[in-house]
Amino acid sequence: MTAPRILVVDDEADLRELLEITLVRMGLDVDCADCLAAARAHLARHEYALVLTDMRLPDGLGIELVREVTAACKSTPIAVITAFGSADNAVAALKAGAFDYLSKPVGLDQLRLMVQSALRMHKTEDDSHDAGAQHAAHASRLIGQSAAMQDLRAQIARLARSMAPVAITGESGSGKELAARDIHAHSARADKPFIAVNCGAIPEALMEAEFFGYRRGAFTGANDDRDGFFQAANGGTLMLDEVADLPLPMQVKLLRAIQERRVRKVGATLEEPVDVRLVSATHQNLAECVEKGQFRQDLFYRLNVIELRLPPLRERLDDIGLLADVILERLAPGGKAVLTPQALAALRSYSFPGNVRELENILERALAFANDGTIEVADLALKAVAPAPQIPLAQPVPQLPQEEASVASPAEQADPPAPQTRTEDDDGELPHSLPDHLDNVEREIIRRALEKTHFNRTQAAELLGISFRQLRYRMQRLSIHEPDS
């Protein structure tokens, strides 16, 4: 079996020699070039497991080579060497498709880690190609066949080939962590740890110790050495969930760890190298946080090299049937729970402000109310969406998008009322908010039934013709409490 071949492109003879010696000692074959023209000639003759190029060359820029290799040799990772402090160049190279980067002076430990990651990725590409399309289509945690989801999965497959930091944006409940896990699972780091950290759930006083670890005796209670999140994710992927919640002092320390790829434990004097792929996620607008001074601009640019947007559920309502089937199969294995066509139509008419997480909660609650596992519209108990602003009758009423339309009640779906025309001679006034008005009516009826039965909820449920669980749920939703004895 032949050794993997590496191409080193740099105009500094001493650095070329250092890189060549280091790579040869790793058991690799190495070709060297001192300019873009020589590099192109090598690429025309050989296939490489990794191309390593300087950013500044006598006949052009290394980023030109990055674009060429990315376009022509999709299975060949290319990394760049940047001058110390040239963070903008590194970010530009990553955006152009570079696998990774090294800063001068080149640290040999970092070089070895990067080469090992590139070789793992190259091997993964070869294995995927040999196994065929079925192996390449790795099972995704993100369910759906809509155009938006197919495009999202294609983006994830491309992002998995890079070491570039990814910033995942999307509303709460849209599946940001699932997307991060998919990026990890499709990458060459799939056999290494995936560590997800909720940045908003860690007390500020403990953040440095949690992220970077600590030495025994560093502070009261530090009875043993302990690794932090960076060490735990070494070789794998570290997900920073709700990264916008990081306090500013921690942002400074995180920025240094990302730039230097080294961390120092609390109480230690020496830094240690770490090799992690960073994926951040937030439901907030980080650019707005930067403008408000709540998030450092330099950290924003380091984390937001590649942005991945997750579509909200209301933008892919066609996926609801498939999502519901998967969720119900998990909640009631063996097909013991089904949605009626009317219930499925009601779900597809709902805006889902809580996205997929809200869909799971709705189905779990509906399954508890359903008879024999058959979920009806009433079992869903969909919340009314926020009412649109009132518009004077003299103005034309704009057509609401489908995702903002309220779900009709079961009676309305079964027997829709005849359209009525309101005139200026009508005496009655329309309620300002139909959902609030209906809630008030329901609240009053339930209170009257409870008072009539002296707050015996079982008798009140029988009086109203609903189950005890349905009455209990409605009392919780409408904030109806028994009087203090």
Could you list some keywords that capture this structure?
five-stranded parallel sheet; alpha/beta; 21 helices; single chain; Rossmann fold; 44% helix; Helicase, Ruva Protein, domain 3; 485 residues
Verbal overview:
With about 475 residues, the protein is an alpha/beta fold. The protein folds into 4 domains: about 5-130, Response regulator (Rossmann fold, 3-Layer(aba) Sandwich); about 155-310, P-loop containing nucleotide triphosphate hydrolases (Rossmann fold, 3-Layer(aba) Sandwich); about 315-395 and about 400-415, Helicase, Ruva Protein, domain 3, CATH 1.10.8; about 435-485, Homeodomain-like (Arc Repressor Mutant, subunit A). It is built from 21 helices and 16 strands. Strands 2-1-3-6-7 form a 5-stranded parallel sheet, with helices on both faces. Helix 14 packs across helix 16 (about 355-370) and helix 20 (about 455-465) crosses helix 21 (about 470-475). The longest helix has 24 residues, at about 110-130.
Write the layout of secondary structure elements.
Blueprint: E1 5-9, H1 13-25, E2 29-33, H2 36-45, E3 50-54, E4 56-57, E5 60-61, H3 62-72, E6 78-82, H4 87-96, E7 100-103, H5 108-131, H6 133-136, H7 147-159, E8 166-169, H8 176-186, E9 194-198, H9 207-212, H10 229-232, E10 237-241, H11 248-260, E11 262-263, E12 272-273, E13 277-282, H12 286-291, H13 297-303, E14 306-309, H14 320-331, E15 338-339, H15 341-348, H16 355-369, E16 374-375, H17 377-380, H18 410-414, H19 434-452, H20 457-464, H21 468-477
Parallel strand pairs: 1-2, 1-3, 3-6, 6-7, 8-13, 8-14, 9-10, 10-13, 15-16
Antiparallel strand pairs: 4-5, 11-12
